[in-house]
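Q:
Got a chain?
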Amino acid sequence: MAEGIQPIFILPEGYNRTSGKDAQRNNIAAAKAVANAVKSTLGPRGMDKMLVDNIGDITITNDGVTVLKSMEIENPAAKMIVEVAKTQEEEVGDGTTTAVIIAGELLKNAEVLLDQSIHPTLVARGYRLAANKVQEILDKLKLHLDINNKEELSRIVKTAIVGKSTGADSHIVSLIVDAVQHVKSMSGKSDTLDLDDIKVEKKVGGGLLDSRLIKGVIIDKEKVHPDMPDEIKNAKVALLNLALEIEKTNIDAQIRIEKPEQLQAFLDEEENMLKEMVEKIKATGANVVIVQKGIDDTAQHFLSKAGILAFRRVSENDIKKIGKATGAKVVATLDELGSESLGEAGLVHVEKLAGETLALIEECKNPKAVTILVRGGTEHVVDEIQRAIDDSLGDLRSVIEDGGSIVAGGGSAELEVSKNLRDFATGLEGREQLAVNSFADALEVVPKTLAENAGLDPIDILVELRAEHQKGKTWAGVNLLDVYKPQVSDMYKEGVIEPLRTKKQAIKSASEVAVMILRIDDIIAAGKSANQQPQMPPGGMGGYGD
């Protein structure tokens, strides 16, 4: 700067600015730290994390997105990586850890290229080329399974939950597959699966084997009157989106009563109106009434005398599920209620579980909504089982909606895609070739991490895998199912399979966030107030590492 010229400040006091290589290095370091936080949870031999929040609540899990959501991450680049996990969870329901560690590895490899004075724009362009090519390669590699075959769907579920607390318990696997087969519906030429039709109800107590599939719906409600029956067999279910009460007028009104007889007549008339409501319900043949709004005390008495089991203030969401399970139609007025609008259930009863009274509508003939009742010794156990079920359901939805498109797991798909990417890179000219090769190297982090988490030598496993793939063994991967079997084997034959959509989305999300972070060369941030916590240091994340 020429002598005598004052520097010009364009940012107000308290703002920090990091630019050029420093900004890129900081962002890459933060991304790697996030990847390291979840790296050790990957695979069937992955370890769990114990997360303790600021009020002492504990979560024990090896679910990547749960770990990342629970951590109070402040670094902006690290937050972008967490968004990858959230997107993966929302789109396909599984593969969150895979997406995060691939993103971290892509940025780690990009750092090597930046050190060789390759411009970030060229690296980003190469990564985009590679990401597009990966989608093509995966489409060519995909296999198909029969989505109506229970045994083949079970293989998907076993792969999804084998690393969870449940292991690959055959009882839980069977419950999940049965639930999906009940609610799976045909829409046009392809099957669809609405996960809202499968309710997961958690109750502490008993053990894993006490979990069961309810062919219907569980609602957290008690019967409205103690004299009502505790169970109704061959139930005829009425669903009412109204209140069994005397409606109040919308305008101010006065009723002048001068004699006691007039008051009694008024009360008698109210009672007769409520009695008439119950008579209308009884005349349809309904013996179970589920109401979205309130039920007057007098109406409860008449329902009880009629032997009708009733529940009130049931949520709209539960009402819809009960309708799908029983075939009942929701009516808004009693005039609409008829025998044709009733649903059917083999059994409706109240049951006490873990000290709470629940209403179970079950044994429905052709339920399009079901409930998986999860039991376990502690709250942490049932929470982790639910996360395993959610992952499995996400995988099954992806496979069903994609017509059965799958790839083998155990890192075999990543190795095969990596091999094909290197072949693709040889046909490229310019420095993008180096970026495509770096992308191919990054994909190998999946089998490498699987081996590390199992206590195997990752270099030996990687060398052996590459040799197998060069021989044309497409689905050679890291076999961690049985300690007595070779560590490298055909993962498709071993029954380890994953949805194609999960794999495509993981690589797509990881590459997009890596490109976005690489293109940032300037970070302008407002200064922190004194009561805020300091930023996460670029080198790592306290307490977590690979």
User: Anything to note?
Assistant: Confidence is low (pLDDT under 50) at residues 529-546. The chain has three domains: 17-144+407-525, 147-215+368-403, 220-366.
